[in-house]
Specification:
This protein is an alpha/beta fold. The chain has one domain: Glycoside hydrolase/deacetylase (TIM Barrel, Alpha-Beta Barrel). It is built from twelve helices and seven strands. Strands 1, 2, 3, 4, 5, 6 and 7 form a seven-stranded parallel β-sheet that branches.
């Protein structure tokens, strides 16, 4: 018969590791390329649909990365909508180009300009997600930015690394092209392709983190704020939940000292999984850089939706 002490230890392990696994697969939904103009959907209608469908899907609080340059009255109304519905607005700068600017002062001014616009919305809590901090740029500029932000009480917003980040913008571009040319689209097939592509990429990143750490850290899935996100967010969240993910509020992750990487590498937030695993930081593939991934995505789409990439 098993020793009682051994049984007690086994029960403790089950409680510790079992309870951890229940809560480990936690996910925040985030959006970048926000406040895009009207396309096949009116811009405001898109935002309204996105907010409504996230509520249907049970997303408690999403994170919107906001660049403030060029925001018009409709854009301000969309920010109010996100804010009033309880979503988190994140300062992503005003309007900066990573390639052309190498002046710390310019970046600081951009963050301050965005802060001045966003501070009027209750969904803004001075979280900052600034691209230059996550790229392999001038180390002195990145260090100066980190000091600048900390001294002024800004809070870091991390996202995480995902190899297919931004490809949903490419899917939307293909969809918009079909709409403009009056060509039919199999929306059911496109929805399933969208959901499978994004959920698979997230599962791969989580598996890598789990193998390295022994647990699943809080993840952030970054989507593009476009028509397809508005249409398909319910199906995407349903599949993620069926795969064992719990969708949590953005602030629950950002305010968690274990999840938030500020203690590990200050403001290098995009690479926070790499920071806690002590691996090197990686360049992030943003929507502006589809690159070699297009071949992979085109092959996937051709198997799912005949003629969609043509």
């Amino acid at each position: 018969m098993p020793n009682k002490k051994w049984l007690a230890r086994l029960c403790l392990l089950v409680v510790v590791f079992g309870s951890g696994s229940v809560n480990a697969r936690e996910l925040v939904i985030a959006f970048e390329r926000t406040l895009q103009p009207s396309s096949s959907l009116d811009a405001m209608a898109r935002s309204q649909m996105l907010v409504r469908n996230m509520a249907i899907a049970g997303v408690p609080q999403a994170m919107f990365l906001i660049k403030t340059k060029g925001i018009d009255q409709k854009g301000k109304a969309r920010l109010s909508l996100y804010s009033d519905k309880g979503h988190l607005l994140v300062n992503a700068g005003h309007g900066h180009g990573l390639v052309t600017k190498s002046d710390l002062y310019v970046y600081e001014i951009g963050i301050l300009k965005a802060n001045r616009i966003l501070q009027h919305y209750r969904g803004y809590k001075k979280h900052v997600h600034f691209s230059y901090l996550h790229e392999h740029g001038d180390v002195n500029i990145r260090r100066g930015l980190a000091i600048f932000l900390q001294e002024r009480g800004y809070r870091p917003a991390f996202t995480g690394v995902n190899s297919l980040r931004g490809v949903d913008q490419y899917l939307d571009q293909l969809y918009q092209k079909k709409v403009r040319s009056n060509r039919p689209v199999d929306m059911a097939a496109l929805e399933q392709a969208y959901v499978d592509l994004l959920s698979k990429s997230l599962a791969q990143e989580d598996a890598l983190a789990f193998n390295l750490l022994g647990y699943s850290p809080k993840q952030v899935l970054v989507l593009q704020e476009n028509d397809l996100a508005a249409y398909f967010i319910v199906a995407l969240v349903d599949q993620l939940v069926a795969q064992g993910w719990k969708i949590i509020a953005a602030e629950a992750a950002l305010d968690d000292p274990l999840a938030n990487p500020i203690a590990a590498n200050r403001w290098g937030a995009n690479g926070y999984l790499n920071s806690i695993t002590r691996l090197g930081d990686e360049r992030i593939a943003y929507a502006r850089l589809l690159g070699d991934r297009q071949i992979q995505v085109d092959a996937f789409l051709q198997n799912r939706i005949s003629g969609f990439t043509e």
